[in-house]
Amino acid sequence: MWTPDPLQPAAGWHRISQPRLTPPPPSQRGLLFRGLALLAKRFSRAQIPDIFPVLNIHRGLFPAWLWFASRLMPYGKLPAPVRELLILRTAWNCRCRYEWGQHVDLALVAGVSDADILASTRGAAGFADRHYAVLMQACDDLCQQDAISSDVWQALQKNWDDAALIEIMMLVGNYRMLAGFLNSTELVLEAPIEQRVQAFLQRVASDISVTH
């Protein structure tokens, strides 16, 4: 069930009343999930996130999406900390607690600091480093107006080639789509990940009132 956080978007997280879709039992998931279980261990996960078996209810769509999504994460060209900060900002903009919680955990595994995770909740204003501030603004532009503004595009071009710019846009677009799916299906964050998110929130509790 949804519970209040000390750290949330201005409009709050999308509220969860009751999951509308639930993961099928392991016996109904197929051989693909054996490989996914091995991949999960690479990210220090004891279990596959529930979003995967729920998406796999559509057997024709899930494998194709999974291959595409894997080209962005974990096999994309963007540095893992950049990728995770962009996903965190996307989840925050979309008020998607499940996506944000999953990627707080993955960001920590990728070496993103508590301070930078917290900064991502403020967008460009959260970063003194212009490089990261521009990335956050690009994410906000895509989430709010479906286009990166001219000045932000020009700033991005100083650090990223065309292939990376494409990946930035596709990454944000993919996680916006997933946020809509997750908010609509109202999946609840898995207990082990929720525990790690709560540990993060406790660590940054003293900083939340200062920055928000």
How would you describe this structure to a colleague?
- The chain is mainly alpha-helical and 212 residues long.
- It has a domain at 79-211: AhpD-like (Up-down Bundle), CATH 1.20.1290.
- The protein is built from ten helices and no strands.
- Helix 4 packs antiparallel against helix 5 (97-109) and helix 6 crosses helix 10.
- The protein is globular, with a radius of gyration of 17 Å.
Can you identify the CATH class of the domain at 79-211? Mainly Alpha
State the CATH topology of the domain at 79-211: AhpD-like
Low-confidence stretches: none
CATH architecture of the domain at 79-211: Up-down Bundle
Number of helices: 10
The CATH homologous superfamily of the domain at 79-211 is called AhpD-like
Portion of residues in beta strands equals: under 5%
Helical fraction equals 55-70%
- Gyration radius from CA atoms, angstroms: 17 Å
| Major pleated sheet | none
How many β-strands, per DSSP? 0
Please give the structural blueprint.
Layout: H1 32-42, H2 51-55, H3 62-72, H4 80-93, H5 97-109, H6 114-120, H7 130-145, H8 150-157, H9 162-185, H10 191-211
Helix pairs in contact: 4-5, 4-7, 4-9, 5-10, 6-10, 7-8
